[in-house]
DNA sequence: CAAAAACTTGACCAAAGTGTCAACTTTTAT
DNA sequence: ATAAAAGTTGACACTTTGGTCAAGTTTTTG
């Protein structure tokens, strides 16, 4: 009890301010990327004097790296509960739904990561790359299993997953184009539902009437 | 003959240097976006003194706007020959193939445009947005026609096209993730071929064995 | 409650970036 | 050939940015 209260209170100010800074930063990075974001802008958006932000983070780099970690962690948390042991149609529907939910709710983080990819993923550590690779490989194995069972057609699991990521993340990263296409000022939950139906039905059934 | 030679020679130096500058700029913008790119870096990459670049373009803005125009123009040229009057399977295959070819060959331009979208598409003029909208609408009509003919299932044409753009552009914008997934150091034409087969077969037939 | 640790901040500096200009060279037109 | 137009460039002035620091205040700890 005592120990716990010490531990939490001891870190209260720091953690509160770090959160303020990181939230401000991820929004800025999501719009302008690493190189386009000024340290001073992060300080302003955090509503803290620049020198105070320097007290918590040595430089922009450190903020950025923390955000990369956070986003990857959030990504893990969001998708580890997806059960790929179900039947293909169930599992794939759930996966697409979860990815679209993530795109809708965690738009900022998605765009932040999109910037990192556009710049070549230089900030990803070897460990982080490897982790991504392992998670993906696990998914591929499930798909291969379904293929061997004759439950789905014989396609490239890698390209299949890329197609799912692309189709879902597009709604977070390129919201503008989606809004322009749908002729909507702002995307609603309903729009994401239609997206889900379209993607799921296309992926599962194909678009040609048989 | 005379007139023509006057016209071309009169503009030779200018156009040569503008091309140098624009080529250097689009590469930098494609990596770091508008805000992340310094005017001086464009000059260095162009192998021209900064003051010389200022002689051709008043500022970074002007360079960027020219590039937006160029990319939209190139986009038009690349896809206006796509014949959507064919049978659905033929037309859709060709469309996906063309989009993937564009992603492979015009990677830089794709990424440049991706940055513009991530920053909210602020640089697109009303006219340009409208043009994009019109081209898209035309495609949608074709799809609606096919639906009314019972040739393809009743799905949202908008979301269907978004799915096609997303699945193909992903290979240009997020090459890193693709390379990581495929465990390749560099994507080859062959990789794009497999991508095409996977996307086309999935879109046309769906992934479930019937 | 006193000392230590944690936190805050204005002021400052050096480096980098933006944009201008006048003097110069090269190209073009007559 | 020569004047006008087009192109080139070093140097300069001004602004923005990144980063430090010392002197303060607040919070925690024993």
Walk me through the structure.
- The structure is a homodimer of 210-residue chains.
- The N terminus of chain A is likely disordered.
- Chain A is globular and about 60 Å long.
- Helices cover 79% and strands 0% of the residues of chain A.
- By secondary structure, chain A is an all-alpha fold.
- Chain A has two domains: 57 residues, Homeodomain-like (Arc Repressor Mutant, subunit A); 142 residues, Tetracycline Repressor, domain 2 (Orthogonal Bundle).
- The structure holds a DNA duplex (30 and 30 nucleotides).
Helical content class of chain A? over 70%
Low-confidence spans of chain A: pLDDT under 50, at least 5 residues? Answer: 1-10
The greatest interface here is: A-B, 65 and 65 residues
Number of helix segments of chain A? 10
Q: How many domain regions of chain A?
A: 2
> Could you give a short account of the major beta sheet of chain A?
none
Oligomer: homodimer
Shape of chain A: globular
- How are helices and strands ordered from N to C of chain A? HHHHHHHHHH
Kindly estimate the percentage of residues of chain A that lie in beta strands according to DSSP: under 5%
* The CATH homology group name of the largest domain in chain A: Tetracycline Repressor, domain 2
Mean pLDDT of chain A: 90
The CATH class of the largest domain in chain A is identified as Mainly Alpha
CATH architecture of the largest domain in chain A: Orthogonal Bundle
Question: How many beta-strand segments of chain A?
Answer: 0
How large, in whole angstroms, is the Cα Rg of chain A? 20 Å
Structural class given helices, strands, pairing of chain A?
mainly alpha
Cα separation of the termini of chain A: 67 Å
CATH topology category name of the largest domain in chain A = Tetracycline Repressor, domain 2
